[in-house]
């Protein structure tokens, strides 16, 4: 991508997620009391209201739950990627995450794994792709 994708500045609660992307690690918070994964980063568990949230490294593998194909780029940096897909991925660990798939358009039920798009400051944007190895 010739231009840089616009991404949010890390907040105090999301900084650990963005730091992990520098190592190409997909992480999410897990609530200690109710043991549920929490996505997007928060201070309070949306399921039980507790504040005991810790970070956990995930496999980055999952199944496409929903797909929306975009034929116009949302940002100039995506102009060379159209058409691309905005997807909801049900991660193997049990959380659902929104992201992109560039390249072949997936269908609901396809297996995918995390891939990384470098950002200008050393962080990596997590996107998804078909598995590199047969599942």
Features:
mainly beta; 5-stranded antiparallel β-sheet; OB fold (Dihydrolipoamide Acetyltransferase, E2P); 2 domains
Topology:
Layout: H1 15-21, E1 27-31, E2 37-38, E3 53-57, E4 61-70, E5 84-91, E6 96-101, E7 111-118, E8 124-129
Could you characterize what this model shows?
- GO terms for molecular function: DNA binding.
- This protein is mostly beta strands.
- 5% of the residues lie in helices and 37% in strands.
- The protein has one helix spanning 15-21, and strands spanning 27-31, 37-38, 53-57, 61-70, 84-91, 96-101, 111-118, 124-129.
- The radius of gyration is 15 Å and the shape is globular.
The ordered string of helix (H) and strand (E) elements is HEEEEEEEE
Name the helicity range: under 10%
Strand arrangement within the widest β-sheet reads: 6-5-4-7-8
- The global form is globular
Instruction: Return the CATH topology of the largest domain.
Output: OB fold (Dihydrolipoamide Acetyltransferase, E2P)
CATH architecture of the largest domain: Beta Barrel
From the alpha-carbon coordinates, what is the Rg to the nearest angstrom? 15 Å
How many beta-strand elements? 8
Query: What is the beta-strand fraction?
Result: 35-45%
Overall pLDDT level: 93
Number of helices: 1
> Structural class, from helix and strand content?
mainly beta
Q: What is the terminal separation in angstroms?
A: 29 Å
Main sheet properties:
5 strands, antiparallel
